[in-house]
Design goal:
The protein is mainly beta. It is built from seven helices and 35 strands. The protein has three domains: 404 residues, Adenovirus Type 2 Hexon, domain 4; 112 residues, Elongation Factor Tu (Ef-tu), domain 3 (Beta Barrel), CATH 2.40.30; 95 residues, Elongation Factor Tu (Ef-tu), domain 3, CATH 2.40.30. Helix content is 9%, strand content 37%.
Length: 652
Amino acid sequence: MSFWKVDSKLAIAQKSVSVPSENGLSYTENQKIVIKIDPSVEYFQPSESYVQFRLKLSLPGASKTRLQLNERIGGHALLNHVRILSGTGVLLEEIQNYNVLCYLMYTYDTNNTKERKRSMFERTTMYNPACASTHGSTQLNNNSCVDNPYFKDGKDLEFVYVKVCLPLVGSGIFGNNKIFPTMLTQGLQLEITMEEAAKCVQRLCTVAPTFVDRIVTNAASGTARLPRVNTVGTAALAKGWKKDAQFTVTAVSKANPAVMTVTANTDVGALTDGTKLTSAAVTPDSANDVGELVNTAANLYVKSTATPNQYQLYTDAALTIALDTSAASGAAGSGGTVQVDGFVKQSVIYLDKAQNNITSVNKCPFVVGEKLRIGTQGGSNVIANITDLGSISNIEMGAGTYATYVKITLKAGVTPTGGSDFTTASVLFSNSFKEADFKPGYTVDEVELVMQQIIMPKGYTATMMKNMKEKGMMRYDFVGYTNYKHSVVSTDTQATLQLPLQNSRAKSVLCLPLDSSSYTATQRVEDDDASAFKGIKDGIIEYRFNVDQKLNPDRPVPLSKLSSGSIEQQYLIELEKGLSQSGIQPTSFRNFENNFCVSRALALQGGSMDARGKNIDIQLSYGTATKNKLWNIWCAHIRSIVVKQNDISVQV
């Protein structure tokens, strides 16, 4: 190379080549995908290549609720373990917990432009203003029940096939922008182990709250996004669902069964069959009057007639024993009052359109067959008076007065017990996750690796092969990630994690403490907290690194303010250095609290450190920890593929 002379340039061509998987046509959780790249491809551009497939989610059994892949990493959530081997079987790169690494990358390397691009190709999802909350809640990217790529719009649950194109951003080889010489490694073999479905999928944030410790009697977050009740049955608009309603009696006949006529009460609308009455005060009430027979009845239930506001009276809930007033020798009932004993049984609920933009069937987050609950949020964010409503039989727009409101019809009428009135502040949320057969799944098919093959000019390959035979050597460098795992129990408040790094050119370490508790599919999906991928603080107070008998930094990095929602400046500085040095561009710290990471740059300005034989550990101090944790500690380092004649080796 000369400062005074322009380097020679090579005229190259590029074309797309698709390499299908070879060990099956379709795949599901915990299965392995194998893709073999033939040496005839010779050269390809890794950073412009991607894995392409079709995906369809599933929810067998009686459970019904909308699901999607993790909103932040989309299709990457499906990839648990990625291995890249040479054509001769030499392991070139291995990424354990690939999806956790991608979740870390996409937490900090993100902006609106990148999010939009990822939503188109990698099937992440974005915040949809059409489904926005009207109560000032945070904007979450899994709120969309309209135009969601994973299911059809409408009242019925119907998952659809979605095309996914995944650049392997967590791989050093496939994330590299340097051309890869496939011919020198005698081809490549890509192996992908699929993740458990329950860890990949999540519900919509608009169908259920998140209860602390997954206990419904604890405080809940996310209630601002839930649908609200407007009214029920034939009650007037904005009345909610009231209890202990009183009706004015205008007549009670001498008949078997007795027929009672009342004045309409718009607070609750018409009484439904089986509604129990109490505190009957029908007049006149003298001996042998109809009023006396009604008022002294031990139990009183109503059955509707063809005439509005007119009901037959029975003395049992099954409506088989009529209240016989035909033999009364006194006067018929002509006045007084009766009161409903608690709530009127209802099977129709109208959603409030003024809250959370639920103005059409498509904007309703629930589906037919989904099981619902109703409750009222009280003090300390605790949802009280929770009542199971059973499953939905239909979702449609109302008629007449209710024409602009979404109408939910339940499979059976429900009578809430206890509690107080449900108002327009009361929330509806899904309970379908509690079904015994709740087990989400997915199917992946048409898997292929789309490669951008580079076609070199004539003579280039021959010259390179000639140089290799003359004791030449090819070295291909890339930044890889090796995962060192450590477990820490919740009772260990002072922990020291030894990092047995065996990397000759280590750049930084990224440490994520994952919740290692065993969760069911119900717990993972219902709580909607991405617990399989994100780091948790769990009451951590401070940390420091010990690198080769030297404290780095020389004082502990405080973390106690993070638990209260505040910011620790030194922590963020260390985090930014560690991310940048590992090749992750730290463009956003918006979600640093939701994906806790401890990092340490082992060198600066793109440099590296020989970590072999050095004593490196991280010292952790916890306050009150409640979770067992599995620390995923990635060492970002430079790996080299060295090819000498017919020998392939990897230097780490």
